[in-house]
Amino acid sequence: MSARDWIDKDFYRELGVSSSATDADIKKAYRKLARELHPDANPGDTEAETRFKAVSEAYGVIGDPEKRKQYDEARRLFGGGLRGFGGGSGGFDVGDIFGGANAQGASGSFSGLGDILGGLFGRRGQGSSAGRPRRGADVDTEVRIDFLEAVRGATVPLRLSSPSTCGTCNGNGARPGTSPRTCPTCNGAGLITRSQGAFAFSEPCRDCRGTGRIVDDPCPECGGDGVSTKSRTLTVRIPPGVEDDQKIRLAEQGEPGQNGGHAGDLYVRVHVTPHAVFGRSGNDVTLTVPVTFQELALGTTLTVPTLDGKVSLRVAPGTANGRVFRVRGKGVVKRDGAAGDLLVTVQVSVPSKLSDEAQAALEEYTKATSGQDPRPELTAMLKQRSD
Predict the structure, then answer these.
(1) Which of 92, 240, 284, 354 is the most exposed, fewest CB within 10 Å of its CB?
(2) CATH number of 279-378
(3) What is the reported pLDDT for 200?
(4) Which parts of the sequence belong to the CR-type domain (predicted)?
(5) Per-residue confidence at 309, pLDDT binned at 50, 70, 90?
(6) How far is CA 312 from CA 35, 267, 309, 327, in A?
């Protein structure tokens, strides 16, 4: 695909999202379309297959944060496409843009655009080295841990199947003992400039696929790509206090870079399984304790669990239902030493059945307290409206 074709395409519309969509929205839209359009789900449907390829192509660009940024910048500079440029008799040479030349003078808006578009095509323009180091792509994965592991921290193994630098050729794509040679078609630039109508444009060299190098004797392991898919196990340290849906970044644990470039990062999204008893609010741990009416009315001492033991709480006579007791320092302890609290809420538990003796005792209690109004404000309001 040429540079012109690429810029003229609206990848956001292809995925059915707006240009302001979040990365999560883009991924969700892609997964939905990929499931619907996948050839396995639509055998013999050429239209679905074409759409599937277009959706995959779109996600390959705007699904990568770095490529998306470059794509947005290029679209901004060209106002949505290359059509309509070159209004003069001779037009302008898009190859100059890719080559890093300034088509509008030293301060023109096209300066450096070759780096922007070159990064998206996996190459650099004429005048720059096709073998320039490029950073690898970031990788996303997920892990599930339980509530106490999230609070205290944990070490978990992660098994990943992802591209990595080929160990046989060390990433150069050539069989051990041989080396790639400079592509004679593009002289190592990775680009070919062609004329079409009123102007010229650049596109990846077909002979070297935009790399600027020819591998005559490919590596038997990676087939000349310099990258092979491998399964690897990483030991990931989950820091104490991590929250549900939080992302942890592991620097340079993503896909390998090219031509000596740095590897991308690995982002681990953590899912926390809820606890049967404890809840969480920020750094505070929450706990609801069922109590009887008489415990609140007469007062009592409650023994409640904490994350690392137990504590006693004195409940004064006449305590209201729903009262929250705060136990300092018994919450989540972060890596910096900051600790939250344990928040204990007392909640009256109403029995579903009563024994005859309990029924009689409650009826006697009702008679003894018949003069008490538990809702005086409502009673006063109702009286005013009836007068």
Answers:
(1) 354
(2) 2.60.260.20
(3) 63
(4) 153-231
(5) very high
(6) 55, 42, 11, 10
Q: Which of 240, 213, 354 minimizes the C-alpha distance to 293?
A: 354
pLDDT of residue 6: 56
Tell me whether residue 265 is annotated as binding. Answer: no
57, 43 in Cβ contact below 8 A?
no
User: Could you read off the pLDDT of 7-37 as tens digits, one per residue?
Assistant: 668 888 889 999 889 988 998 998 889 888 8
Q: Is 330 a known ligand-binding residue?
A: no
Does residue 109 carry a pLDDT above 50? no
Query: For residues 344 and 313, what is the distance between their CA atoms, to the nearest angstrom?
Result: 9
Q: Do the Cβ atoms of 307 and 366 come closer than 8 Å?
A: no
User: Is 166 a known ligand-binding residue?
Assistant: yes
269 pLDDT higher than 80? yes
**186: annotated binding-site residue?**
yes
Q: For the whole model, what pTM was predicted?
A: 0.52
Is 205 flagged in the annotation as binding? yes
DSSP for 251-302?
Answer: TT-SSPPBTTPPP--EEEEEEEEPPSS-EEETTEEEEEEEE-HHHHHH-EEE
Tell me, what amino acid is at 301? T
CA dihedral 50, 52, 57, 59 (to 10 degrees): 160
